[in-house]
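Table 4 source record.
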Amino acid sequence: MKNQRVGKVQIELSRIDMENADSGWAALHNSYYFWDVITLLCGMTCVFGGLAAFAWILGLPGRIAVARNHPEAEAVYTMGWVGFLAIIPWINAFIWAFKPTDVVDIRRFPDEEAEAIKRDIARLKKTAYGKEDPPEPDDQAVTENSESKDAPRSET
């Protein structure tokens, strides 16, 4: 019986302390829910941090494929995000992002295929990551201009 009375007296004293608190921090610190709020904030930080880490890991194969200028970067990107449903496709996408792939496309010559891959990767960077690469100068136009400037002019 004595223990219960001490508990009630202690509660009454903490209520008096809260009423006499000078600042908001002292009132919050003396609050009954102070450690509950701290625990909630720590838990939310852990949950959101875990979700951010999970999203970063899911997008990892696609980022690797784009950085390595993989010909099938869009497929690796998609497979990385969808592969979380069954872990094996994500592992496949991760390995595929590092594996060099030869593209055999009979519709284009190799130079045209390389240009198409560059355009696809630039489009993927813009849509998936919001990054837009500055346009690269056309190599043929640069060589033609430099040749025309260096070549002696012949008058006819």
